[in-house]
Please model this.
Amino acid sequence: MAIAEQQTSSQAGPGSGDKSWHSIVLQTLKRNEISLIPYVPDRVLTPLIKNLHADPFFTTFATAREEEAVGIVSGAWMGGRRGAVLMQTSGFATLANTLASLAVPYQIPLIMFVSERGTLGEFNYGQSLVCRTMRPVLDSLALEHHTITRLDELEFIAERSIKQAVTTQAPVALILNPLLTGGKIFDK
Amino acid sequence: MSTRNTKVMNRFDVTSRLIAKLKREEAVIGGIGNTNFDLWAAGHRPQNFYMLGSMGLAFPIALGVALAQPDRRVFALEGDGSLLMQLGALSTIAALKPKNLVMIVMDNGIYQITGAQPTPAAGVADLVAIALASGLTNSAWAADEEDFERLIDEAMSADEPSLIALRIDDKPGVGTTRRDPVQIRERFMHGLGVREPL
Model:
């Protein structure tokens, strides 16, 4: 939810250019005609957000809260335009009511990318605690979710999950694990 | 104009006045509770969407529709208590400037449906001043029903998002929306021309 106050690991992200995790996400979004990208920023997501802003195919903008972003892409879906929401673990934790009263009962294919904090080197106790609420909330609503740890599996999981969300009219959460992104480490 | 000079109107009456003006399949998003109950009671239209939860998201949902269909006017009806939950959305809308979005705030200063408890803003905050300070420069209080209709007419051809606030009485909604979220969503998509009925 909050913009990170620490630097991302300098070796974060396996590689750059076309083979980076964020370029795979961007290309997968584009291939699936997902053009509306509201987000609440996260340090790890910064290269993805920057490249989305730079690409005129996408309408990319920050919202004040994650709930707001879910409302926007839900309205856009009903109006015939596809979107996806970018957020951090702590932001996902603000969404239980919106998922349970909008996305799930109205059968909206809400596509969420969640940058996972709170594990594999977390330095903020609150982040590690709130992270533990994420999968129980997803499971309690029987929402499809995948934790992506490997670069070679990212495109398959993202591509298939987006198509499944759209065809089954059900939300999906794609959790971007530090093993994929490098995460955020304590360095000062 | 401050709230002191405005007439106390009735939600069902002004909602009916709005609906009577819609001739071009404009979309209408009704916020949680009485706001969408009165939208329902004013006569169902295929372009109406009724929220059964997600308090505070009428404007964000309407923004999404407006961004998806820039050639269609999109109206959102929201209560004062609901708007207080998502004041940040006003800045998001101000930043994006969708010219086809019209926001209507029904302000009775209370959470009518839960027992008429006063909102924290009641008698303290001015929602139009908040909207203006959030960057929504085309925001105004409606002085009375006639002024409301005039503001709607202006919003129909405005080249920036419009916000119209009204003081309303403490009456509950006139009807009760049929609580069938899948049908509400599907019929709305038919109404917007996104899908054909089976």
Summary: The two ends of chain A are 21 Å apart (CA to CA). Chain A touches chain B at residues 36, 38, 59, 61-65, 67-81, 83, 97-98, 100-102, 105-108 (CB under 8 Å).
